[in-house]
Amino acid sequence: MKVLVLCALVAAAAAWPNYGFLNDPGRSEPSDAQKQHDVNYLLYKVYENIRDEKLKSIGVTFDPEADTSHYTDNGEAVHKLVKELKDNRLLQQKHWFSLFNTRQREEALLLYDVFEHSKDWKTFVSNAAYFRNRVNEGEFVYALYAAVVHSPLTKHVVLPPLYEVTPHLFTNSEVIQKAYHAKMTQTPGKFRSYFTGSKRNKEQRVAYFGEDVGLNTHHVTWHLEFPFWWEDKHEGYHLDRKGENFFWVHHQLTVRFDAERLSNYLDPVDELHWEETIEEGFAPHTTYKYGGEFPSRPDNIDFEDVEGVACIRDLIILENRVRDAIAHGYVTARDGSKVDINNSHGIDVLGDIIESSPYSPNVEYYGSLHNTAHIVLGRQGDPHGKYDLPPGVLEHFETSTRDPAFFRLHKYMDNIFREHKDSLTPYTKEELEFSGVAIDGVSIDGPLETFFEDFEYSLVNAVDDTPQVPDVDISTIVSRLNHKEFSFKIDVTNNNDHEVLTTVRILAWPHRDNNGIKYPFNEGRWRAIELDRFWRKLSPGVNHIVRKSTESAVTVPDVPSFQSLIEQTEAALSAGSSEVDIQDYVSALGVPNRFLIPKGNSEGLEFELVVAVTDGKADAAVESLHENTVFNHYGYHGVYPDNRPHGYPLDRRVDDARIFHDLSNFHQHTVKIYNH
Ligand SMILES: [Cu+2]
Residues of the signal sequence (predicted)? Predict the structure, then answer.
């Protein structure tokens, strides 16, 4: 047996392109380009054998338990996973996977743990190649994505667009069927995707938002960066303001969706009620790669308890406990002590208890309203499991926003958060002022104009094939929202005799509701969409700040296609380069830049544009880091650089709007967004 293992290791080493170990002095890690190559091929055609010969042979010959000195936990995680594998306890391959399924999540996290405890890339990638052939593909993709996002070994690796890795979760079944046909007949094909539903369904008018592949990628990525299962003691570091980020990312989805509805002559989303009828049904038109169709939900059904998940009564009890905590101004921790939430930090604690995560001070008492609600709502098509259907769209971050009920569920949670925010004392003029600094004017260079464009992505990874049959090009074309480029021009006077640091915060809210009635300041500010947040130094005197729409800290550019990632990586490797020029795409955390501004209309949809320049020194949570730190969208590894609550200075109730209008460091004017 020993001899066998040894041979296997020698074979693996021989097949390996000069990889070294971090803990082996004098030898270095492989280049970023090599790592990118490996990740590309680990994810390419993930339901089949690895197409890279070296990785493939490592997948066969590697023994994960042979040398545990390459793991930071002495192989504890890998022993656990291998035992489950040998005992035949792991979920089969070619079966659906959902992160909300407790056992399936446990399995995916066992593999994630192996990656996270790998000391060097060789150990990481060898395990990936080995387990790719042995664990469920959905679990594998999740574990690998989460590990690449969090591991220091993969800092510069760009994850391929998820909609091209697992296209089934992003593409309508009709188009997927055509893709299979194209493959079977070896005929290249480009197929147009249409949004689900028909014109008889008014929700269809905003389906371009919930079904956008980029928006779905944003949502998945956020949940990968801030996983609800994250435990500091296990993972080794803390995710700063995770609970508050949970509130903020979903609050922004909620207000952005409402803004899109306005431009399509729809009322804002109504919050979900456990005791009222769910009027809107939903037909997902989406199929699992393995395991059948995503279940539908008919119109006008009443909530039913979901077998083995939760009773509606229990959800109402959880909600009441959370609302009680808000009314009391404190959360009761596990040991009975009180955690004060009547302050800026309270939103973070509330996010932790509502989602919930292991950061919750008392998960036994507050449960996990959000996660349970997702499952309960997702299962309303077959609450008693009579028809043996796979999980619903709401049980996947990739597919959740396709169902308009997702936004009703999140409006419900958003209103709970608002109840808390509204309970805090409004900011005073003194707190909001920035002494000596005044905004002289704000203008926009370029049109505020949205439009629809065609976008094509590959479905090659959707279909089954074998290395013996050559690939034909199969893709789909979807219509998607975009906008023309523009810049904000902000003139600021610094009357101090020295340089000052400022945080520039740009937000906008719809000027009127769907009946044409102006939103009062306090209503509007809660609906504000964050457009940008950045640091600037102001020299004494007049300063002209120009900020391009493409620079926004809350958005990300489109990740290059999977094919282009592969081509760029191979070109870099064959040119002997250690890097691939793709570093702009390392994080897919933000909203797609295409969605920076909501869709306008032909007459011009009015928005209140707000710019606040606040005291950067008082705002900074970290020393000097701010000079070259971008806000990095909705999160940040390490301490988040802005110590103000998300949404500041509009995050709290405003009883008297004159306070804002009297501030010289605050500017507001009405703009129009067009769509042609
Ligand atoms: Cu979410």
Answer: 1-15
